[in-house]
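WARN no homologs supplied; continuing
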Amino acid sequence: MSLSIEEKLSVNKFFVDEENAHIEIDPAYPDLKEKMKLVNACPAGLYKLNDDETLSFDYAGCLECGTCRILCLGTVVKKWEYPEDTKGVEFRYG
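OK structure emitted
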């Protein structure tokens, strides 16, 4: 039996650090092209473009892959670091 990507990702556990976001963005960053890099590249689909062209983001489901850091650190992404010890994603498939 083959599982879809969504089914595989759904078995992961996330230990969210509510006190310290490990990724911070500038939701009103003016360059739409930069924002679309994040919308299109995030494997967890955590970046969403709003109707007013601001960016929404929820770090709670982050896979910690670093894609957004590589693409947009210093522009849309203001801060990117790994979560504190015992926080973050726990992969539970395969």
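Residues 5-90 form a domain with the Alpha-Beta Plaits fold (CATH 3.30.70.20).
OK
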